[in-house]
Design brief:
Elements: H1 3-17, H2 20-34, H3 50-54, E1 61-65, E2 71-75, H4 82-95, E3 99-101, E4 104-117, E5 120-127, E6 130-137, H5 138-141, H6 144-148, E7 156-165, E8 171-182, H7 198-203, H8 205-211, H9 215-235, E9 239-240, E10 246-247, E11 259-262, E12 267-271, H10 276-284, E13 289-297, E14 309-318, H11 322-343, E15 359-362, E16 365-368, E17 374-377, H12 378-386, H13 393-402, H14 412-424, E18 432-438, E19 447-448, E20 451-462, E21 465-472, H15 477-487, H16 493-499, H17 502-508, E22 515-521, H18 522-530
Parallel strand pairs: 6-8, 9-13, 17-18
Antiparallel strand pairs: 1-2, 1-3, 4-5, 4-7, 5-6, 7-8, 10-12, 11-12, 13-14, 14-22, 15-16, 18-20, 19-20, 20-21, 21-22
Helix pairs in contact: 9-11, 12-14, 13-14, 15-17
The protein binds one RNA strand of 77 nucleotides through residues 14, 17, 19-22, 24-25, 89, 113, 115-122, 124, 133, 135, 137-140, 152-153, 166-168, 170, 172, 186-200, 211, 253-256, 298, 300-301, 303-306, 466, 545, 547-548.
Length: 548
RNA sequence: GGGCCGGUAGCUCAGUUGGUUAGAGCAACGGACUUUUAAUCCGUAGGUCGAGCGUUCGAAUCGCUCCCGGCUCACCA
C-alpha cells in the first residue's frame, strides 16, 4: 500500500472507531427497525406519569382462588424491610396458589438503570415525576423480548403492564407490551456519579437535568417561584405587560448595554438593561398597577452572583410609595416559599409538621424568611456594623482611609456609601429592609417631605446579596430632566444628548401618577429560596464561551 | 486582568523520585442467571495522557508557550 493511502486510511479510521459505543448503539437502532418498530417512536396516548402510578400502589392485592371456585382477595402487607418481604414470600408459599394482581398501567420514560438477570430484566425508567422499575420477563412479553435486547441506558421506551411488587417489595411494572420511543445514540454519563465537570453540566444541561440529583427539582422550583410571584401580583390587580427589549437608548439603570444593529432601518440598538422607563410610560398611559418579569442584559463581568442576562421583576404601583412596595415584596417572597413547599411533602425536608417552614437552608446555616422582615435604617445599620457614628463625617472618612477607600475631594455621602458597601452589606444576613438612604446617592428618588436629606428608598438584603430595590418614584418631569443632565454631565454634549431619553421626559410631562416602584432580581431570589450558591445553577443555560 | 488548583478511556477517578507495554470502577462487547436494587460471576476490547515546543538514553510526570475549566481577588451592580 502506498504511504499516502495508508495515511488516509488511518486518518479516516478515527471517525469510525471514534466511538465503538456509538457504533453498537447504531447497530441496535437498525435491529429495532428490522423488528418492525420505529426506533424514533410516535404518539403514545393515555400514559400515566410515574408519580401517578406510584400513588396507585395501594391497589395491588393478592388473590387466592378457593375451592368453591371463588377467590379471596388479600391486601398486601407493608414490604419495607427485608423481614417483611421474607415473611410475605413465606406466606405466599404457604398459600400454594394465587397471584399478585394490580392495575394495568402505561408509562414512558428514559432507561436510567438496567439489570439484566438472564430471562428477566430489571429496568429503571425515569420521567419528570420520578423513577419506576420495569420488570421485563421473556415469558411475559413474548415477541417483544427481542426488542428488549436492543435497549441501552439512555433510551426512551414505553411500557404496558401490571403494577405489582417484586419479591423485595419494590414497586414495579411487570411488562406485557414494550414500545420504543427514541434511541440514545450517544452513551450517557456514568450511571451512578453522573456528570461532575461543572462546565459539561452547564454546556450539556439536558444531561445534568437527567443525571444530577437535585437539578431538575431545583429548576421546577424556579418555575413555581416565578408562577407564584405572578399569582401574588395578579391577586393585587397588577397588570403584566411586555416592553421592548431592543432600546434605542438603554436607560433605567447604570450599566453597560449590549449593542446590536437593525439592518432595514440601519440604526444602532441596545439590548435593554432595565424595564423601568417603559413601565413608567405605561403608568402615564393609565395602567396604574403594572409589572414586567423579563430578561435584561448587562455587558459586565460574570461571577457567582452575576450572569450577563438575568431575569428582573419590576413593579410600579400608582398612588403608592416605597412603603407599599415593602409589603408587596414580603408577600411575593413568602408566597413563593409557600408555593415550593406545597409540592414537597413536609417529611421530605425532615419536618414533621405540614406547616410552612420559613427557615430555609443556606450553606451551613439557615435563613429565616418568617414575615415580617426586619426593617432598619441605613444609619442604624451603619453604626451597628461599621462601628462608627454615621453622622460624624470625620470619623467616617478616617475609617474609609483605613480600609483603602479614597476620600480626597469626594462627597461625604459617597464615601459613607463606599464604607457601607464594604463593611455593612456583607454582614447583612437578613432578610432586612434597609431604609432611609442618603438622598445624595439616590438622585432619581423622591425625598422625604419632612427631611429632604433622606431618600424614600429601600433595599432588601439577604445573605449579603441585594435582592430587591424600591423607590418612591420621581414624577416631576423638569426635575427628572435636570437629574438626567447632571448624571450625564461627565460626558460630552454629543453623548449626553444621545443618551437623554427625551421621549421618556415627554411622557412625564403628560403627568405620571405618584408611585412606588420595585425591582427584584429573580435569579438571586431563586438562589436564596433553593439554597443554591451559584447563579449559574439557577439559570438553565448560563453564558459560556463558545465550545472550541 | 492577577493569584491558586485542575484537564489521563464514553463517564468517574488512580498513576510513587522521570524508568518496562499507562491502570481501576462504571458503560460497551461475548458468556451464565426469571425477583434484581449502582445486581453478581467469568472473559474481551477500549487511550493523540488538553495542544505545541523543549530538556533527557527515556516524559502522563520536569521546563516554556498556548487553549479550556474551577476557585478567589480586582472590575462591574
Amino acid at each position: 500500500m502506498p504511504e499516502e493511502a495508508a495515511a488516509i486510511a488511518t486518518e479516516e479510521s478515527p471517525t469510525e472507531d471514534l466511538s465503538t459505543l456509538e457504533a453498537n448503539r447504531r447497530a441496535k437502532l437498525a435491529k429495532i427497525s428490522e423488528l418492525g418498530h420505529d426506533p424514533w417512536g410516535g404518539r403514545f396516548d393515555d400514559r400515566s406519569l410515574i408519580g401517578e402510578i406510584r400513588a396507585r400502589a395501594g391497589e395491588i392485592t393478592y388473590k387466592v382462588p378457593d375451592e368453591a371456585g371463588g377467590e379471596t382477595v388479600h391486601e398486601l402487607p407493608p414490604l419495607e424491610t427485608e423481614e417483611q418481604c421474607k415473611a410475605f414470600r413465606q406466606w405466599k408459599a404457604d398459600q400454594g396458589r394465587g397471584e399478585l394482581v394490580g392495575p394495568k398501567v402505561r408509562a414512558a420514560g428514559r432507561i436510567v438503570l438496567h439489570r439484566d438477570k438472564g430471562k428477566l430484566h430489571f429496568i429503571d425508567i425515569r420521567d419528570l415525576t420520578g423513577d419506576l422499575q420495569v420488570m421485563v420477563g421473556m415469558k411475559q412479553v413474548g415477541d417483544d423480548w427481542e426488542l428488549a435486547q436492543q435497549f441501552d441506558l439512555g433510551d426512551l421506551i414505553g411500557v404496558d403492564g401490571t403494577l405489582i411488587r417484586s419479591n423485595t417489595g419494590e414497586l414495579s411494572i411487570l411488562a406485557e407490551k414494550l414500545h420504543f420511543m427514541a434511541k440514545s445514540i450517544a452513551p450517557p454519563p456514568d450511571k451512578h456519579s453522573g456528570l461532575q465537570d461543572p462546565e459539561l453540566r452547564q454546556r450539556q444541561r439536558y444531561l445534568d437535568l437527567i443525571h444530577t440529583e437535585g437539578v431538575l427539582p431545583r429548576f421546577l422550583d424556579r418555575t413555581r417561584i416565578v408562577a407564584s410571584i405572578r399569582n401574588t401580583l395578579a391577586q393585587q390587580n397588577f397588570v403584566e405587560v411586555e416592553g421592548p427589549t431592543l432600546h434605542g437608548i438603554a436607560g433605567g439603570a447604570a450599566a453597560k448595554p449590549f449593542q446590536t444593529h437593525h439592518n432595514a432601518l440601519d440604526i444602532e440598538l441596545n439590548l435593554r438593561i432595565a424595564l423601568e422607563l417603559h413601565l413608567k410610560r405605561l403608568m402615564v398611559g393609565g395602567i396604574e398597577r403594572v409589572y414586567e418579569m423579563g430578561r435584561v442584559y448587562r455587558n459586565e463581568g460574570i461571577s457567582q452572583k452575576h450572569n450577563p442576562e438575568f431575569t428582573m421583576l419590576e413593579v410600579y404601583q400608582a398612588y403608592g410609595n416605597y412603603e407599599s412596595m415593602m409589603d408587596l415584596t414580603e408577600a411575593c417572597i413568602t408566597g413563593a416559599i409557600e408555593a415550593i413547599q406545597a409540592v414537597h411533602p413536609a417529611g421530605a425536608r425532615g419536618d414533621a409538621t405540614s406547616e410552612v417552614n420559613y427557615c430555609l437552608p443556606w450553606g451551613g446555616t439557615t435563613i429565616d424568611f418568617k414575615p415580617p422582615f426586619a426593617r432598619m435604617t441605613y444609619n442604624q445599620l451603619f453604626a451597628m456594623h461599621a462601628g462608627v457614628d454615621p453622622e460624624d463625617e470625620q470619623a467616617v472618612a478616617k475609617l474609609a482611609e483605613s480600609i483603602g477607600i479614597p476620600t480626597e475631594g469626594r462627597h461625604p455621602d459617597v464615601i459613607k456609601n463606599d464604607v457601607f458597601e464594604e463593611k455593612v452589606e456583607d454582614a447583612l444576613e437578613g432578610p432586612v429592609f434597609v431604609t432611609d438612604y442618603p438622598a445624595s446617592i439616590c438622585p432619581l428618588t423622591k425625598r422625604k417631605r419632612d427631611n429632604p436629606e433622606i431618600a424614600e428608598r429601600f433595599e432588601l438584603f439577604i445573605q449579603g446579596m441585594e435582592v430587591a430595590n424600591a423607590y418612591t418614584e420621581l414624577n416631576d418631569p423638569d426635575l427628572q430632566e435636570e437629574l438626567f443632565k447632571t448624571q450625564l454631565s461627565g460626558l460630552s454634549d454629543e453623548d449626553s444628548m444621545a443618551k437623554m431619553d427625551h421621549d421618556f421626559i415627554r411622557a412625564l410631562r403628560y403627568g405620571m401618577p405618584p408611585a412606588g416602584g420595585l425591582g427584584i432580581g429573580i435569579d438571586r431570589l431563586v438562589m436564596l429560596l433553593t439554597g443554591t450558591q451559584s447563579i449559574r445553577d439557577v439559570i438553565l443555560f448560563p453564558l459560556l464561551r463558545p465550545e472550541r
